[in-house]
Amino acid sequence: MKSWLAKFRISAALDAGKPLPESLRRAIAADSDLEQFTRRSETLGRALRRPPSDEPSMHDSIMRAVRIAARPAPPRRGFGLAWLAMPASVAALAAVCFWWGFHRQAPPGGPSLTGAAMVLEMSEKMPNTMPSLVMSPLSDEWARVDHDLQNTKQVLLASFP
After folding, report:
1. With helix as H, strand as E and coil as C, how does the chain read?
2. What is the per-residue pLDDT across 133-158, written as a single tens digit (0 to 9) for each?
3. Radius of gyration of the chain from Cα atoms?
4. DSSP structural state of residue 109
5. Residue 22: in which H helix or E strand, if any?
6. Local structure of residue 21 (DSSP, 8 states)
7. How far is 133 from 16, CA to CA, in rounded Å?
8. 35 close to 7: Cβ distance less than 8 angstroms
9. Using an 8 Å Cβ cutoff, are 48 and 14 in contact?
10. What is the distance between the alpha carbons of residues 77 and 70, in angstroms, rounded to a whole number?
11. Higher pLDDT, 54 or 13
């Protein structure tokens, strides 16, 4: 703990630019760790007080990067043709589908009524099955809420003497 306090006092004295007190100099002379800390702190203090060297190459590269970042991006070209090609391809696809839909040959054996029969069968069952299908998730959730309320009631009643 004493070494930490001594290191703090050394650092504070070096930061303030004041000479080290005599008691602190004696402690530094007696302890090699404090002596090493003092030398390193003085070296670091001198290095930090010295103004940074102005290297033109670093300055130029930084300013070049700043100018490039500030420059607006050039507009991309070539998307105009893509926007023109997309509606044309959609129109061509629609025309092919339209033509294929009207010029298809009818299946042999005449028109089939199986699809219509299936729809009619489903429509008869719809009033009976639809309410339970629609209300099932809500009913399940309501049952869970009721179960939670019952459990909460049991816990509260059990906590009272």
Report:
1. CHHHHHHHHHHHHHHHCCCCCHHHHHHHHHCHHHHHHHHHHHHHHHHHHCCCCCCHHHHHHHHHHHHHHHCCCCCCCCHHHHHHHHHHHHHHHHHHHHHHHHCCCCCCCCCCCHHHHHHHHHHHHHHHHHHHHHHHHHHHHHHHHHHHHHHHHHHHHHHCC
2. 677 788 888 889 999 999 998 888 88
3. 43
4. T
5. helix 22-30
6. P
7. 82
8. no
9. no
10. 21
11. 13
> pLDDT value at position 78?
58
Q: In this structure, what token pair is assigned to residue 149?
A: 């309320």
In contact, 46 and 74? CB cutoff 8 Å:
no
DSSP one-letter string for 64-91: HHHHHHHSPPPPP-SHHHHHHHHHHHHH
Residue owning tokens 């339209």: 98
pLDDT, position 67: 87
Q: Tell me the backbone φ, ψ of residue 40, rounded to 5 degrees.
A: -65, -40
pLDDT, tens digit, 9 for 90 and up, residues 36-83: 999 999 888 888 777 766 666 777 888 888 888 888 877 666 555 566
Kindly state the average pLDDT of the residues 76-95. Answer: 71
d(Cα 61, Cα 11) in Å, to the nearest integer?
37
